[in-house]
Amino acid sequence: MSTTEAPSAASPDNGSGPDRVWSVDEHLDDVLGAIHPLEPIELQLPDAQGCVLVEDVTVPLALPPFDNSSMDGYAVRVADVTGASAEFPAVLTVIGDVAAGFGGARDINVGPGEAARIMTGAPLPPGAEAVVPVEWTDGGSGGGPATTMRAAGAHPDDSTGEVRVHRPAEARAHVRAAGSDVKAGDTALEAGTVLGPPQIGLLAAIGRPSVLVRPRPRVVVMSTGSELVQPGEKLEAGQIYDSNSFTLTAAARAAGAIAYRVGAVTDDADELRATIEDQLVRADLLITTGGVSVGAYDVVKEALASVADEDEPGSGVDFRKLAMQPGKPQGFGSIGPDHTPLLALPGNPVSSYVSFELFVRPVIRALMGLKDVHRTTVRATLEASEPLASPAGKRQFLRATYDAAAGTVTPVGGSGSHLIAALAHADSLLVVPEDTTAVEPGTEVGVVLLTQ
Fold first, then answer.
1. Which residue has the higher pLDDT, 379 or 298?
2. What does the alpha-carbon distance between residue 243 and residue 347 come to, in Å, rounded to a whole number?
3. What was the pLDDT predicted at 409?
4. Fewer CB atoms near the end CB (10 Å): N or C, the chain?
5. pLDDT by residue (tens digit) across 232-279?
6. Segment 299-349, tens digit of pLDDT
7. HEC states along the chain?
């Protein structure tokens, strides 16, 4: 056996009392069970980026809406350029220009022995069957092969006269057919699509100025602790820089939210309470980090206890112990008149980030209305110089790097919840189950990918 089995760790109280130890899955199910997607709103395209589409979008007109040229060149009839070569070019009469956006194409009818100078994106004029690129011609100069079209303003005579074509063209060559991208009545985008730049572009191309979406959640992140100092300020004895609020704000944005970072709040319950109440006006979700353990100065519990609305059932925050490492202390509930959800995370940097990935990121995705809210998980072979130890009865999450090609995962740094440097070099979390106390190298383990 490559793993050592430990007795199942039964919590002192398997009910709902203060001594209950929750499993990771129980806590996550409880959290997600209380989250409902944000109400849909109609947004203009520039404001809809990153949002989730609520309804299918149908194409009202074909793309492209007309046959058009994919090259700068000449619109011709196939029979007129059959057998054309550099030695024996086809000589055609140029009857005019067709530029993109130029409705004059309807007034030009390409007949036998004729050609129309045409620009990329311009509609194919009646009578034309193909487009020959300008590089296949003399460009109307009477000389050798052209490399480009000469500017119309400087050479107006190029829209008339003659052009020599040095190569034949098949029917429909360099012609984009009407409806070759999408046809009228097709589904352009399905409900549930996250609107990125290509999707925004498609909506604009089919003429949609706005769409019905679920907005990106507004997430407020705040750190707690009198020892925290903002980066750039001078550290005094016993102080450290606040990294959690920066990490979690960035993580919230990466998850799809509009995130606001609040400066670190001291270990003062009244100040924290006032800060939280001030932030409710711009929050769909509140995240605190620190102050959720059992220390004398862990004031998040004290502050949040009085923020709850006694007249509203279910209002308030429940603080729990989870059977996991890192991230044992957690808090979850709702506060304020709108029952804004709040997740209180532990203060150690690795604990807070792992907690974010496991619990907060799924909440953000659920608020967006996405069906798949979880990170991708895979199985991989442990690559390590020695066995990994894991505490009995706890699900352990270790920072790691994942090699998809080799199918291996390698731990990065130790298991300490303060080792943030190793976190910066990890791209995954290696998962050791609750009933396993040792994992031998070569064992297959679960891996949570932090980049997918």
1. 379
2. 10
3. 97
4. N
5. 989 889 888 889 999 999 999 999 999 999 988 888 888 888 898 899
6. 777 777 666 555 555 568 889 999 999 999 999 999 988 999 999 999 999
7. CCEEECCCCCCCCCCCCCCCEECHHHHHHHHHHCCCCCCCEEEEHHHHCCCEECCCEECCCCECCCCEECCCEEEECHHHHCCCCCCCCEEEEEEEEECCCCHHHHHCCCCCCEEEEECCCCECCCCCCEEEEHHHECCCCCCCCCCCCCCCCCCHHHHCCEEEECCCCCCCCCEECCCCCECCCCEEECCCCECCHHHHHHHHHCCCCEEEEECCCEEEEEEECCCEECCCCCCCCCCEECCHHHHHHHHHHHHCCEEEEEEEECCCHHHHHHHHHHHHHHCCEEEEECCCCCCCCCCHHHHHHHHCCCCCCCCEEEEEEECEECCCEEEEEEECCCCEEEEEECCCHHHHHHHHHHHHHHHHHHHHCCCCCCCCEEEEEECCCCCEECCCCCEEEEEEEEECCCCEEEECCCCCCCCHHHHCCCCEEEEECCCEEEECCCCEEEEEECCC
